[in-house]
Amino acid sequence: MTENVQILPNVKHVFLVLSGKGGVGKSTVSTQLALSLQNSGFKVGLLDIDLCGPSIPRMLGLENSSVHQCAEGWVPVYTTPDQTLGVMSVGFLLGNRDDPVVWRGPKKTAMIKQFLTDVYWQDLDYLIIDTPPGTSDEHISVMENLKLSIFIECFMKLHRTVKCDGAILVTTPQAVAVGDVRRELTFCIKTGLKVIGILENMCGYVCPHCSECTNIFSYGGGESLAEMGKVPFLGRIPIDPKLTKASENGENFITAFKDSVAAQTFINIVKKY
Ligand code: ADP
């Protein structure tokens, strides 16, 4: 209990980004959300706890960066000299980008706990946590460690205006991904985690020539799930081939995102929260 009180004491808001299935764009969404908040003038941390598939360092062109220690703990890797976006990922701790992380539950839990307690974020407006898909060890461990900070934040709410944090659920419009996110929704309800809303990613393809949007997959699954679960629907992000290409080459991702259709969706989300 005493140990838990120290968790993220200088972070005003914590958002988890969840999805029931890999490959739906959870890391992309986490990164876009962090960039949008940074562009809106906030100090942001991006924590990648996808221990088995950390992709954020590559997306942000930080693959060759490594984490340093200071007296207060691990120092995040910053994307700009003004230190407005700090990133921490297991990817920074691997000797080689292709090294697999094959850890069993207790080791994963210990690593997550360390990520939550031993990173020296300094003062943050927002911490975005990119989680692995599913409702596995990683989620339960994060929930256990965050419970108290959620409580602390609610407590602080009594004294000054602090927005409540929670989870953003990412899905693609197809039924399978939506079915998986339904399980995530149940997980959130069971663990008492507030659902900020559902975001539908890779919904339609905007033709770069005529700007017409074609719905390659089925349409509206995320929105109807939001209605069913009585949680907010945050919007739709189309497939943007420029973003796919840029995420392979981090240097361009930030620029590609600024000019993308997705950027407007995120501006609207950030305005609300
Ligand atoms: P997850 O974290 O859910 O496993 P990622 O964020 O790694 O998924 O995305 C999987 C792949 O899909 C990546 O290659 C990424 O660039 C691509 N992707 C995600 N969202 C979009 C989008 N809206 N438009 C185009 N490509 C996308």
- Broad CATH class: Alpha Beta
Major sheet: 9 strands, mixed
Order of helices and strands: HEHEHEEEEHEHEHEEHEHHH
Cofactors, ions and other ligands in the entry: adenosine-5'-diphosphate
User: Number of helical runs?
Assistant: 10
Gross morphology is globular
List key phrases describing it.
disordered N terminus, 273 residues, globular, ATP-binding, 11 strands, nine-stranded mixed sheet, binds adenosine-5'-diphosphate, single chain, Rossmann fold, two-stranded antiparallel sheet, alpha/beta
How would you describe the overall organization of this protein?
This protein has helices at 2-5, 26-39, 56-59, 105-117, 137-157, 175-191, 221-229, 241-248, 250-258, 261-272, and strands at residues 11-18, 44-48, 68-70, 73-75, 77-78, 85-89, 124-130, 166-171, 195-206, 213-214, 233-239. The protein is α/β, with parallel strands linked by helices. The chain has a single domain (2-272), classed as P-loop containing nucleotide triphosphate hydrolases (Rossmann fold), CATH 3.40.50. The chain contains 10 helices and 11 strands. The model is unreliable at 1-5 and 148-164 (pLDDT under 50). A hairpin with a 6-residue loop joins strand 9 (195-206) and strand 10. Helix 4 (105-117) runs parallel beside helix 5 and helix 6 runs parallel beside helix 7 (221-229). Strands 1, 2, 5, 6, 7, 8, 9, 10 and 11 form a 9-stranded mixed sheet that branches. A two-stranded antiparallel sheet has the order 3-4. The structure holds adenosine-5'-diphosphate. Adenosine-5'-diphosphate (ADP) binds next to helix 2, strand 9, strand 11 and helix 8.
